[in-house]
Specification:
The chain is of the alpha/beta class. The chain has a single domain (4-261), classed as Ribonuclease Z/Hydroxyacylglutathione hydrolase-like (Metallo-beta-lactamase, Chain A, 4-Layer Sandwich), CATH 3.60.15.10. It contains seven helices and 14 strands. The strands form three sheets. A six-stranded mixed sheet has the order 1-2-3-6-7-8. It starts with a strand and ends in an 8-residue tail after the last helix. The chain binds fe (ii) ion.
Length: 269
């Protein structure tokens, strides 16, 4: 089995989405596809459209449209892609409270097959209660569970988030074979080139929050102190409700205009 992974960067939120494909069966999964948002809160599908073009140019059949969790920082393109790939199953972790509109809610260790290449769901709660990672062969897609080694780990202060739970989830990831490639949704580079992939070995050795055998107590203490300093993501007010409902672009735009209507004084200042 030889899978291939192709990354797509959505620049407005700095989010990465991925296509993982089995060339042998000509099948693919799309993971964490983002919509873009401009400075006027207008939604665009540029990144998702690039994914569609890539999939079609490689003559792939999309089996799954997967989200690792309810993203707070940008709307998901999963519902939009479903309108293009009607036979694909949309899915998110079963531990996500109040989520609606997905075809499947995935439990830990559920199988997801691309031809003869069967991946599996790895429940990795902590950043949110419903976070899952997707393991296809030696490729692990972790969403916001952890980041590049010099950035560390995700915040745990969203509703249902928990630092101790995240530590346990990351320990599960770091127990995978050293050569496992870890693909993430974001990078926050400070003076270096943006990266989206690392390995279990690199994270174990160098992750500033959990590497070098950091204890759970050390991690929870650091994470709690750091989370107390973080602001809400810029587009959280509409991204969270939109993503909980697996909403299409037109419905997200309606949601945004309703939210603005309830904030008089902002739109016309
Ligand atoms: Fe997130």
């Amino acid at each position: 089995m030889s899978l291939c992974v192709h990354p797509f960067l959505e620049p407005s939120s700095g989010s990465y989405g991925f296509v993982v494909a089995n060339p042998e069966s000509q099948t693919a999964a799309i993971i964490d596809a983002p919509l873009g948002v401009d400075d006027l809160d207008e939604i665009n599908t540029h990144c998702a459209d690039q994914m569609i073009d890539w999939v079609e140019s490689h003559d792939l059949t999309v089996r799954y449209l997967l989200d690792t969790h309810v993203h707070a920082d940008r709307p998901s393109a999963t519902a939009y892609l479903k309108t293009k790939f009607l036979c694909a199953q949309t899915a998110i972790g079963a531990g996500t409270p109040d989520v609606i509109g997905y075809d499947r809610l995935l439990e830990d260790d559920e199988k997801l097959c691309l031809g003869h290449a069967c991946g599996r769901v790895v429940a990795t709660p902590g950043h949110t209660p419903g976070c899952v990672s997707y393991l296809f062969d030696r490729y692990l897609f972790v969403g916001d569970t952890m980041f590049m080694p010099d950035i560390g780990t995700a915040r745990c202060d969203f509703p249902g988030g928990d630092a101790q739970t995240l530590y346990t989830s990351i320990a599960k990831i770091l127990a995978l074979p050293d050569e496992t490639k870890i693909f993430m949704c974001h990078d926050y580079p400070d003076g270096r080139r943006s990266r989206f992939v690392t390995t279990v070995l690199e994270e174990k050795r160098k992750n500033i929050h959990v590497g070098n055998q950091a204890t759970c107590e050390q991690f929870v203490s650091m994470r709690t102190a750091r989370d107390a300093t973080l602001k809400a993501p810029r587009w959280a007010d509409f991204s969270i409700p939109a993503n909980l409902s697996c909403m299409n672009v037109a419905n997200i735009e309606t949601l945004i205009s309703e939210l603005h209507a309830h904030q008089p004084g902002q739109a016309n200042l």
